[in-house]
Amino acid sequence: MPSFRSRTFAVMLDMAGCPNRCRHCWLGVPPNRRVSEDTLRQVVRQYREWVRPGESRPFAGAIGVYTWYREPDYAPNYKELWELEKELSDKGQARRFELLSIWRLARVKAMPRGRGTPVRKPARSASLALSEAPTTLAGGEALSATACWPRSGSSRRASGPAGSCS
Question: How far apart are CA 113 and CA 56, in angstroms?
Fold first, then answer.
């Protein structure tokens, strides 16, 4: 296994669980019950305190904490969970972002355009509003593939290296 170079971590526990078990979900069907605040605090503490063998100080540098990995504001207490994320994360590491969702692209009027910049005015359809969107990991790092949607009047539907959609 290659060694970790980065000391920045994202700690993610889906505290709300998921009732749907959608077939299109990128996570598949793992067991996913609700997680308590105490469990999240314990996991974050373990990340903060772990010392790599042969070193004298904790390995983790900056830690960002997320209470979700399916939908950020799914839980009814999402405001309290956001405050908990900010409390447990290092300064500047708590972030809000939306995962790319085909369901949302088809139904929500304020959709991302291009490289994830939100559109503030309604769009007529997903194919007109979005021609390219990077596939992302939680935390926002772009993967090597980019999903491409057809533009109006085009049947092109493919994926390729980031930025390869035309």
Answer: 46
Query: Which token pair is 45?
Result: 């503490």
Q: Is 119 helix (H, G, I), strand (E, B) or coil?
A: coil
Q: Are 78 and 84 in contact (CB under 8 A)?
A: no
Q: What is the pTM of this model?
A: 0.54
Pairing label, strands 9-12, 63-66: parallel
Alpha carbons 7 and 29: distance in angstroms, whole number: 30
Contacts of 148 (CB under 8 A, 6+ apart): 131, 132, 156, 157, 158, 159, 160, 164, 165
Contact present, 69 and 3 (Cβ < 8 Å): no
Rounded CA-CA distance 25/33 in Å is 16
Report which secondary-structure segment, H or E, holds 113.
Answer: strand 112-113
**pLDDT tens, residue by residue, 58-112:** 998 899 999 987 677 777 888 899 999 999 999 988 887 766 555 556 655 654 5
The pair of three-digit structure tokens given for residue 19, joined into one six-digit string: 């009732």
